[in-house]
Amino acid sequence: WVYGFAIIVQDTAIICSWNAETENLVYNFVVPETVGQYTGVKDKDGTEIYEGDIISVSEDKKNGEVIYNSAHCGYIVTGKAWACGCARLGQLCTLFIRVIGNAHKNPELLEVV
Q1: Higher model confidence: residue 21 or residue 60?
Q2: pTM to 2 decimals?
Q3: Rg for the chain, CA atoms, rounded
Q4: Coil vs helix vs strand at 91
Q5: Residue 74 in contact with residue 68, Cβ under 8 Å?
Q6: Over the chain, what is the mean pLDDT?
Q7: What's the confidence (pLDDT) of residue 16?
Q8: At CA 14, angle to CA 103 and CA 90, rounded to 5?
Q9: Is 34 exposed, middle or buried (0-12, 13-18, 19+ CB in 10 A)?
Q10: Distance between CA 6 and CA 88 in Å, rounded?
């Protein structure tokens, strides 16, 4: 994964980051669909949760993908295992959720458990 500032124009995505050793900007071309924003929330292990991450709610054994939803003005978790289809990320207690993968590398984790 590459962390930095995203520049997305049409079908091209570049992540710009600062290399402290060379004191230069580094430009990495990435697949636009894999760019995800940090949600500002951490899971129960202290792992940052990003858009596109797959989280698990341990008590309910439900997996869901974190996405941004403009109708909710925030991040939600959505997946087949959610009875209502989604839940606001801010409403989930970080004592119970854990990042277990992401939708780009681990799509099979979104299957109903």
Answers
A1: 21
A2: 0.76
A3: 16
A4: helix
A5: yes
A6: 81
A7: 92
A8: 45
A9: middle
A10: 25
